[in-house]
Amino acid sequence: MQLTNRSKVVSDKHQTALEKLYLPAVLKGMSITISHLFKRSATVKYPEQKRAMAGVYRGQHILKLDENGAERCTACGLCAVACPAEAITMESAERKKGEEHLYREEKYAQTYEINMLRCIFCGLCEEACPKEAIFLTDRIVNTEFERDDFIYGKDKLVEKIDKRIDVTKRQTLEVAKFKQLADTKHNTVWTGKQIKGKH
Ligand code: SF4
Ligand code: SF4
User: Fold this and answer.
1) pLDDT over threshold 50, residue 191
2) Which residues contact 85 (CB under 8 A, 6 or more apart)?
3) Domains of the chain
């Protein structure tokens, strides 16, 4: 039964005496190999050498803290709904009294997980987030031996307060302007001065 229409008729042409020697083919192959010695290498010795990433490169996610170190994520679930790969899962919990310094909103993500094996790094979770909580960074997701290790929980996703991650390269002027609107002011993380300096 024919499964595709990509079948090819195999040639039954007999080799010439020269072709039977294989020498021309070997020399042709060697010339190609040698020519590459004089060309710029297409590879780098990673991880010692690293290529410059584009400013818009989308790598490992982080969950941002606000200016006071509280988690911005309010477990609304919009990122999970927007995710075409169904890579995000979370469980919400209610903030208790005295936890205001930990969680910015009354509801927060008790657990938040991203399966990096499912993720296609499309950035839709970042776009969907109304709280400016999730961002994709220029970090490359680590290689692992176990599949379970690719499921990143809050321990890997929430940024450290003493090691804030700059995501301004991922911010366009349009996003910055959106944050300055009165009804979206809760998202403001840039000042007018920063926007002028950037453009
Ligand atoms: S980057 Fe895309 S695929 Fe990955 S978690 Fe976000 S929405 Fe899902
Ligand atoms: S990261 Fe943003 S979109 Fe996702 S649950 Fe948290 S607040 Fe909602």
Assistant:
1) no
2) 118, 119, 120, 122
3) 61-162 (3.30.70.3270), 166-199 (no CATH)
Mutate to test the pocket of ligand 2, among 73, 113, 154, 184 (most ligand atoms within 8 A of CB): 73
- What is the pTM for the complete model shown? 0.71
Higher pLDDT, 94 or 170: 94
Burial tier of 133 (Cβ tally within 10 Å: 0-12, 13-18, 19+): buried
Q: What angle do CA 144, 148, 154 make, to 5 degrees?
A: 95
Please work out whether the CB of residue 85 comes within 6 Å of at least one atom of ligand 1: yes
Average pLDDT over residues 50-58: 79
pLDDT at 195: 41
Position 77, amino acid: G
